[in-house]
């Protein structure tokens, strides 16, 4: 029975799609056929298998999940979401150092959803992606972490401060020192802004490249397994990814020291 259920759920994309579809509530056969590709007979064959395995039932011209079906689908959805994130860019994820992500958030990596991998060319290597810059312009809340120095970022920081954006920034000690000593005007603007909060993360053994979360975008960058930062970045616009990014930011904020004096 154990093997049968696993095969029923994972060995057919149509069965998997039907189960996930029914998570939203009872669905008619016509609605199922509209959302799936394939012939009616092929779809009905998969529905029959799900009925026989006790994962779905048919009542009043609608199909819905049984109690067993609800249990199974609730457990399978996070796994499917995780596999979708990792398989789409398998080579990228295999080469990343993911140790800066705490286990509880690594376990939720499927929440990143539909992601794009940003790879800048040599002419734009140290510039933030245009998607991030555009998002910063319209954002009311911004959460950012940097462990490397971005030459254009001090100006971006100070512009957000001047606009009154609720801006929270975590920097490693070397990046903070460079910002304070080499970009004094931008630093002072940030420190004087009532809605800007600056923190220092001193644990040099942890290397998260960068994180930015706005109202509609989440960006994260990792070092590779050789400890090299290659400027590749993950970008997602999913609501679940925004919350994931905020939770990661909060994890590091709790371990950082707030800067209180300019």
Automatic annotation (TrEMBL):
UniProt superkingdom: Archaea
Family matches, as Pfam families: FilR1_middle, HVO_A0261_N
Gene3D superfamilies: Winged helix-like DNA-binding domain superfamily/Winged helix DNA-binding domain
Domain Methanogenesis regulatory protein FilR1 middle: 126-255
The HVO-A0261-like N-terminal domain, residue ranges: 8-84
SUPFAM superfamilies: Winged helix' DNA-binding domain
Name under which the protein is recorded: Transcriptional regulator, ArsR family
Organism, as annotated: Methanosalsum zhilinae (strain DSM 4017 / NBRC 107636 / OCM 62 / WeN5)
């Amino acid at each position: 029975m154990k093997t049968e259920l696993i095969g029923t759920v994972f060995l057919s994309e149509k069965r998997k799609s039907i189960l996930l579809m029914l998570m939203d509530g009872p669905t008619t056969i016509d609605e199922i056929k509209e959302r799936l590709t394939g012939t009616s007979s092929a779809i009905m064959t998969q529905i029959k298998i799900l009925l026989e395995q006790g994962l779905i039932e048919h009542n009043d011209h609608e199909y819905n999940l049984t109690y067993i079906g609800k249990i199974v689908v609730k457990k399978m959805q996070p796994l499917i979401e995780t596999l979708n994130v990792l398989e789409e860019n398998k080579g990228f994820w295999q080469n990343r150092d993911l140790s800066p992500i705490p286990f509880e958030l690594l376990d939720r990596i499927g929440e990143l959803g539909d992601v794009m991998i940003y790879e800048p060319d040599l002419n734009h290597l140290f510039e933030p992606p245009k998607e991030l810059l555009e998002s910063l312009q319209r954002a009311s809340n911004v959460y950012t972490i940097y462990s490397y120095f971005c030459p254009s970022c001090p100006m971006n920081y100070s512009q957000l401060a001047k606009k009154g954006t609720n801006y929270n920034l975590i920097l490693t000690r070397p990046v903070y020192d460079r910002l304070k000593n080499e970009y004094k005007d931008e630093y002072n603007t940030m420190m004087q802004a009532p809605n800007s909060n600056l923190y220092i993360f001193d644990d040099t053994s942890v290397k998260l490249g960068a994180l930015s979360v706005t109202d509609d975008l989440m960006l994260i960058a990792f070092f590779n397994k050789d400890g090299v930062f290659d400027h590749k970045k993950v970008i997602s616009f999913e609501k679940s990814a925004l919350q994931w990014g905020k939770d990661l930011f909060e994890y590091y904020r709790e371990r950082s020291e707030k800067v209180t004096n300019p």
